[in-house]
Design a protein that fits this description.
Shape: elongated
Strand content: 5-15%
Largest sheet: 11 strands, mixed
Region (Disordered): 1-50
Structural class: alpha/beta
Helix content: 25-40%
Strand order of the largest sheet: 2-1-11-10-9-3-8-7-4-6-5
Number of strands: 11
Biased composition (Basic residues): 1-10
InterPro entries: P-loop_NTPase (IPR027417)
Keywords: Plasmid
Protein name: ATP-binding protein
Length: 511
C-alpha cells in the first residue's frame, strides 16, 4: 500500500522556513537599524469661517434674509471728473525712481521723489523742478529736506545751502566731511556778492561775441542785487539810479575802456565811485556838473553807505574768502551768528547777497553738475522790498535752464504774502511765486490756517483736514502736491537720519 503524506495541524510537512527581517540580520552582527520616529498626528486646523452664508442671507428672523439683491448704482464719468467726487483716491502712483521718501498712506506703496525726472516725463503734470515746503515748526520740515538731500546723493545731486540761518544743516555737513563756511559779525569769512563767478574765468581767451554775452549776464545779476539792496533801505531805484549803477559797474571793471580782463568789484568800491566820481562818469550819467551828480545820487550813496558801515560791515564788503569745492556732496554757508543778533533785516539782506553769489557760481555749471539749492527761511528776504521779491522770482524761473532744484522753505503759506502791503505789487509777485513750483509739500498746520491753505493752494475741505488733522498726529506726515495730483505721504527716517535731522538740542535736556 502506497505511503501517504500527512500534514500536521501546524502546517505543511515541507513548509518554507519563516523569512528573516533586516533587524534579524543586523542582530547577528551586534547592531541595529536606527529608526525615525513617526510624527505626531496634526489636529485639523480650525476654520475661520466654519459655515458659509449665501449672498441672500439666512432665511430666519433677524438674520438679514433678502429675497432679491438691491441694484448697484452706476456712474459714467471721465478720469478728470472722478477726483471731484472721490478726492485722494489711490491711483497708480509715481514712477519708482529718485529718492525713496517713505510710503503712500492710501495705496501702501513706496513714495519716490525726483523733480527733475518728473519734468522730463510727459505723463506727470510737472513743468519745473522747484519744491516749496510748508510746515509748522516741529512737524518734520527740516528732516524731510535733509532726507531728500541725503538720498539724492546716489543719483548725482549735490546740495548748496545758501544761508543756514539756525545751523540746522551743520551736523549733516560734518557727517559728509564738509565744514560749514561761517559768515557773521567779527568772523573772518567773507562773501563778495559781486563776484565775477565762473563767467569771469579765461576772459581774455573768449571771442568778442562771447565776452559781450558774459558781460550782459554778469552786469544784469549785479544790477538786480544792488537794486534790491538799495530798495531794502527804503530808497526808490528809478531808471536814473539804474543808469548810474550800470555806468559805475562798467567803469570799475574796465569794460567801458575795453579792458582785456574784468577787474574785481565790491560794494564799497561802488560806493566810493559814487562818492568820488570821475569826470567821465559824471558825463556818462548826463549830469551837468559834479555837484549836480552829488545832489542827484545822494539817496543812492546813502543807501550803499549804510550797507558798508552798518550791521553787514565786514561780511560782504571785500573779496570772497570762500572757495567752494563743488565735488563735495554739500556746501553750506552759515548765518547763525548774524541771526543771533536779532536783526532780521540784516539776515534778509545777507540772504539776498548769498542768493546773488550762488546764482553767479552756478551760471557756468556743467551739464552733469546737478544741484539742490536750498533757500531756507525765504520770507526774511522777500519781506525786504519789491526788488528782493523779484530777485527770488528770477532765481526760481532760471532753475529749469540751469538744471538746479530750487528748494524753498516757509512756515505757512501766508509767509510769502508778508512782502509789502496787502494788494501791493510786491505782495502779488510773492503770491505768484507759488506758481513757480509744481511740487509743494504741505506738512502739519494748525486749523487757524486751514482757510488760508484752501484759498492759496486750491485745496478741498478734505485735503485741508489731511493737513490740520492727520499730518499733525505724527512728524513727517504731509500732503504732497505733484502738479494736480495729491498724495498722503509718511516720511520714514533711518536711525542715522534721525540723529542727523534732530533739531531740538537746545531744548532737550537729554542731549
Amino acid at each position: 500500500m502506497a505511503a501517504t503524506k500527512t500534514r500536521s495541524r501546524g502546517g505543511a510537512k515541507n513548509a518554507r522556513p519563516a523569512s528573516r527581517t533586516i533587524d534579524d540580520l543586523l542582530a547577528d552582527f551586534g547592531t541595529t537599524m536606527p529608526r525615525k520616529e513617526a510624527p505626531a498626528p496634526t489636529p485639523p486646523a480650525e476654520k475661520l469661517f466654519p459655515h458659509t452664508v449665501k449672498s441672500s442671507g439666512v432665511r430666519r428672523m433677524g438674520h438679514g434674509w433678502s429675497p432679491t439683491m438691491p441694484p448697484l448704482a452706476g456712474y459714467q464719468m471721465t478720469s478728470e471728473e472722478t477726483p471731484v467726487l472721490w478726492p485722494l483716491i489711490s491711483g497708480d502712483g509715481l514712477p519708482p525712481w529718485g529718492a525713496e521718501m517713505g510710503y503712500d498712506v492710501l495705496s501702501g506703496g513706496k513714495f519716490y521723489c525726483d523733480p527733475m525726472g518728473w519734468v522730463l516725463d510727459d505723463s506727470i503734470p510737472v513743468t519745473n523742478p522747484n519744491i516749496f515746503i510748508f510746515g509748522k515748526p516741529g512737524r518734520g520740515k527740516s528732516a524731510t529736506v535733509k532726507a531728500f538731500m541725503i538720498r539724492m546723493i546716489k543719483f548725482g545731486y549735490r546740495s548748496l545751502v545758501l544761508g543756514d540761518v539756525k545751523d540746522e544743516y551743520e551736523d549733516l555737513a560734518n557727517f559728509l566731511g564738509v565744514t560749514p563756511f561761517r559768515i557773521g559779525p567779527g568772523l573772518p569769512g567773507r562773501i563778495n556778492p559781486l563776484d565775477l563767478g565762473p563767467l569771469g574765468a579765461d576772459w581774455e581767451k573768449q571771442t568778442a561775441e562771447e565776452q559781450e554775452k558774459r558781460a550782459t549776464v554778469i552786469f544784469n545779476r549785479w544790477l538786480m542785487l544792488i537794486r534790491g539792496l538799495v530798495a531794502s533801505q527804503g530808497v526808490v531805484f528809478s531808471p536814473t539810479e539804474e543808469r548810474v549803477i550800470n555806468k559805475v559797474l562798467r567803469h570799475l571793471t574796465g569794460w567801458s575802456a575795453g579792458a582785456s580782463r574784468l577787474k574785481p568789484v565790491t560794494i564799497p568800491l561802488v560806493w566810493a565811485a559814487l562818492d568820488s566820481p570821475t569826470k567821465d562818469l559824471v558825463t556818462d550819467c548826463r549830469y551837468e556838473s559834479e555837484q549836480a551828480f552829488f545832489n542827484g545820487t545822494r539817496p543812492l550813496r546813502d543807501a550803499l553807505g549804510a550797507l558798508c558801515e552798518g550791521s553787514l560791515q565786514g561780511m560782504f564788503d571785500t573779496e570772497s574768502t570762500f572757495e567752494p569745492d563743488w565735488r563735495k556732496p554739500i556746501q553750506t554757508l552759515s548765518l547763525r551768528s548774524l541771526h543771533e543778533t536779532g536783526n532780521k533785516v540784516a539776515v534778509g539782506i545777507a540772504l539776498m547777497c548769498l542768493n546773488s553769489w550762488g546764482q553767479g557760481m552756478r551760471e557756468a555749471a556743467s551739464a552733469g553738475d546737478r544741484r539742490i539749492v536750498l533757500r531756507d527761511e525765504a520770507w526774511l528776504q522777500t519781506r525786504l522790498s519789491l526788488e528782493a521779491v523779484e530777485a527770488l522770482d528770477a532765481n526760481l524761473r532760471l532753475s529749469r535752464t540751469e538744471g538746479d532744484i530750487q528748494l524753498v522753505t516757509y512756515h505757512k503759506p501766508s509767509d510769502p504774502l508778508s512782502a509789502g502791503d496787502q494788494g501791493s505789487q510786491a505782495a502779488q509777485i510773492a503770491k505768484d511765486l507759488l506758481n513757480l513750483s509744481d511740487v509743494r509739500i504741505l506738512m502739519g498746520q494748525d486749523e487757524s490756517v486751514a482757510d488760508e491753505l484752501g484759498r492759496l493752494m486750491g485745496l478741498s475741505e478734505m485735503q485741508q483736514g489731511v493737513i490740520t488733522n492727520w499730518a499733525m498726529q505724527e512728524k513727517g506726515r504731509a500732503l504732497w502736491m505733484v502738479g494736480d495730483q495729491r498724495y498722503k505721504v509718511q516720511t520714514l527716517l533711518t536711525p542715522l537720519e534721525k540723529r542727523l535731522t534732530y533739531t531740538n538740542e537746545a531744548i532737550d535736556p537729554g542731549v
